[in-house]
């Protein structure tokens, strides 16, 4: 997943405004107690950050693939 795909997936799932808040403020234990923004800046792959955010926000597995992307990961 590219950074642009991550942004599109976040906006598609959560909306532009709330998505920005989640990426900026949600601390994810799965990512070492970092926010998605910090994790991305630290070089964590966007796909890993997206899946961690999905799990933390209880996004149904069938939507984990993100808007405009392929099939959900298994």
Model description:
- The chain has one domain (3-63).
- The protein is globular, with a radius of gyration of 11 Å.
- By secondary structure, the protein is mainly alpha-helical.
- It has helices at residues 3-14, 16-25, 36-41, 46-56.
- The two termini are 15 Å apart.
What descriptive keywords fit this protein?
74 residues, mainly alpha, 4 helices, 53% helix
Approximate helicity band: 40-55%
| Strand proportion | under 5%
**N-to-C order of helices and strands:** HHHH
Tally the structural domains.
1
Mean pLDDT: 89
> What is the count of DSSP helices, taking H or I runs of 4+ residues?
4
Radius of gyration (CA) equals 11 Å
Shape: globular
Biggest beta sheet attributes: none
Distance between the termini: 15 Å
Number of strands: 0
Q: Which stretches of 5+ consecutive residues score pLDDT under 50?
A: none
The secondary-structure class comes to mainly alpha
How is the topology of this model organized?
Blueprint: H1 3-14, H2 16-25, H3 36-41, H4 46-56
Summarize the structure.
The chain is an all-alpha fold and 74 residues long. The chain has helices at residues 3-14, 16-25, 36-41, 46-56.
């Amino acid at each position: 997943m590219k950074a642009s795909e991550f942004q599109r997936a976040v906006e598609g799932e959560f909306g532009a405004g709330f998505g920005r808040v989640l990426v900026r403020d949600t601390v994810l234990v799965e990512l070492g107690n970092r926010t998605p923004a910090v994790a991305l800046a630290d070089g964590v792959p966007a796909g890993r950050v997206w899946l961690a955010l999905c799990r933390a926000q209880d996004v149904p597995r069938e939507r984990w693939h993100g808007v405009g992307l392929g099939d959900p990961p298994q």
